[in-house]
Specification:
2 copies of one chain form a homodimer.
Chain A: E1 16-20, H1 24-35, E2 39-43, H2 47-57, E3 67-70, H3 77-87, E4 92-95, H4 101-108, E5 117-122, E6 143-147, H5 158-170, E7 174-177, H6 180-203, H7 210-213, H8 218-224, H9 231-240, H10 242-265, H11 270-281, E8 295-302, H12 307-317, E9 324-328, E10 335-342, H13 344-356, E11 360-361
Parallel strand pairs in A: 1-2, 1-3, 3-4, 4-5, 6-7
Antiparallel strand pairs in A: 5-6, 8-10, 8-11, 9-10
Helix pairs in contact in A: 6-10
Chain lengths: ~375, ~375
């Protein structure tokens, strides 16, 4: 299993955690915390899920958890919060749901003091669910949103906030503070809308001819991958966040109408595809900022050992920073192609250097 | 490196091929045919593309090609067919366009005898185009449709058909005979509709808040991957096949309207997500599947100069062949993640070596 090693505080700030909900997220958190030496008590109303999760996590019974993580559907949160608070009123509480105004509303009406509840949302998931799909590194390099204030404006208890931020970091996540409204508007665009669209698209295949589906390629598979998602889970998420999603769906409906009209009239739709290019380019790449404008430098190499190392060595020699690198070589091909993603100035510098050293460099794009 | 293929005829049925169009498809065909010992003459009206393709393919000038492959946009086909026929009237012709009724119509009006033209469509592509993205194994395990009859009903010349079928098989493709109408209806569903939907979805991001886009995850990236596709190419494809696409878009529009109404009324949308599950499950797993079986080895590095070179050096030291490589830096982190694509045995070998040398290696997947 993956090691969690890097640079974490030697001691977790809490030792005993109860995780209510043994699905993908709950069990993944359990696996990761247990690997860090925290005692974890996995729970689920579904006996099979609970047994599997307890086995995977090496779960133990805990009577006085310092932290209770509610990894359950939003519709079950109010009830669970009530019963868990009655059971362990000394515990602090964290949720992990996909919509954030709702749990804060629930807690504002519950017995649990609002400052003892931290609403969070790890932006991680898989199109397969359940404890069996859990993995300790599910949150590695993923954004994990937390809401630092209750609905009343009261700040979250500092000790609880420290628990939450330690956990996010220790599990490899990137903590991002947001308002609940801001979060729900954001996920409507970047998560709930893609889910609705992927489901819509995949639905169109049901009436398709078998001979057509046999031609399916990577494009169809990628665009519909998340259409395999759990109907109960996503019914709840989309319904809970309907106020934010409906306006986005109406915009999409308008654009779809325009596209249909253009195609019917034989008008160019190039600008429609271009707008898609623009939107796609706004999705952040590696650095979290909008995808950077790199210059791509193609270098044709002999397909033999040591060429990549030699090329990377040339970059180091002139102090050029490789932002990304793709290798295209395939069976039966005499030559390979390495494309280096570089800053514009580095691309110019490196291109001159490589040409001077006899490399087969092509024009950058 | 893996050898290209096992069970091919020892001798190609043709020795001299002219490929008009040095984009992704044309250059990939050129690379693969050259590897099989065929003399290839790469051409393009774009000088930069032609130079790169000729270099990659080790292209040569040929005066009497037996086969001319037109790997160009459909809108340029009629003109190219005319000039190529005048240049080499003894050649046979193959196209590779995404819509098939149109080239057959073009040829029925051209100088080229209809039986000397084979309309085909390799179901392979990438969201990146150009000679620099070409690879000899692009067609491996991909369906490659061919249309065995001209519009008049006249069968394709048997020698040309043999050329085409040999090439499809030799390049790793799966030859599927279809009628032109049947093909165009099928690709409308499994290729053109997903393209339109991905572009529509990505377009919605243009008006999105920057803070929302920062939360983007794998779902959004996958559903919009093909939205990066070339506007000129896709304007042409969608417009040429509008008769087949528009009815599908109207069905989608109706379903979208129903979804909006349900969300507005607070009705369950579980059955909508379920229908998406059903459609997704209809996509065949293997056909066109192409997924190369690599093992991915994640290595966490310090994000400082020289780390990539050092890592590549380690690979060279134990004679491990890097098939592909991605570099990820996460926002606000001082570490980077390099994922190496390797053969399974190389992954094991390298993992052991790197761990022994103190690298931070994670479990392969």
């Amino acid at each position: 299993m993956t090691e969690y090693s890097q640079a974490q505080p030697a001691q977790p700030p809490f030792q005993r955690v109860r995780i209510v909900g043994s699905g993908l997220i709950g069990t993944s958190i359990g696996l990761a915390l247990a690997a860090l030496g925290v005692k974890v008590d996995m729970r689920d109303i579904d006996t099979r899920a609970q047994l599997l999760a307890r086995d995977l996590v090496k779960s133990q019974d805990l009577v006085d958890p310092q932290l209770t993580i509610l990894a359950i559907p939003g519709s079950a949160l109010a009830e669970a919060l009530k019963s868990e608070f009655l059971l362990n009123s000394g515990s602090k509480f964290i949720d992990i749901g996909s919509v954030k105004t709702k749990p804060l509303l629930d807690v504002s009406r519950s017995l649990t003091p609002a400052s003892n509840f931290l609403a969070t949302h790890p932006m991680a998931g898989r199109e397969v669910g359940g404890a069996e799909s859990a993995r300790a590194d599910l949150f590695e390099s993923r954004t994990w949103v937390y809401i630092p204030k209750a609905l009343s404006g009261e700040p979250v208890d500092p000790e609880l906030l420290a628990y939450g931020l330690w956990m996010i970091k220790a599990l490899g996540g990137i903590a991002v503070a947001m308002g609940a409204d801001e979060h729900d508007r954001a996920v409507a665009l970047i998560s709930h809308l893609p889910q609705a669209v992927a489901s819509l698209l995949a639905s169109q295949l049901v009436a398709g001819e078998r001979s057509a589906l046999e031609l399916s390629g990577a494009g169809l598979r990628d665009t519909t991958r998340i259409a395999s998602s759990d109907p109960t889970l996503w019914d709840e998420i989309l319904s809970t966040n309907a106020d934010q999603i409906v306006p986005l769906l109406i915009n999409l409906q308008n654009d779809l109408g325009t596209l249909i009209t253009s195609l019917k009239n034989g008008a160019s739709i190039a600008s429609f595809i271009e707008k898609g290019n623009q939107g796609r380019a706004l999705i952040p790449g590696k650095h979290g900022g909008a995808a950077r404008e790199y210059t791509y430098l193609p270098v044709v190499i002999e397909d033999k050992p040591g060429q990549l190392a030699a090329l990377v060595g040339e970059c180091a020699a002139v102090n050029v920073n490789i932002e990304d690198l793709t290798i295209e070589h395939s069976p039966g091909q005499f030559t390979g192609l390495i494309t280096l993603a570089l800053s514009k100035s580095d691309a110019q510098l490196l291109s001159d250097h490589l040409i001077g050293s006899g490399w087969n460099v092509h024009a950058p794009r």
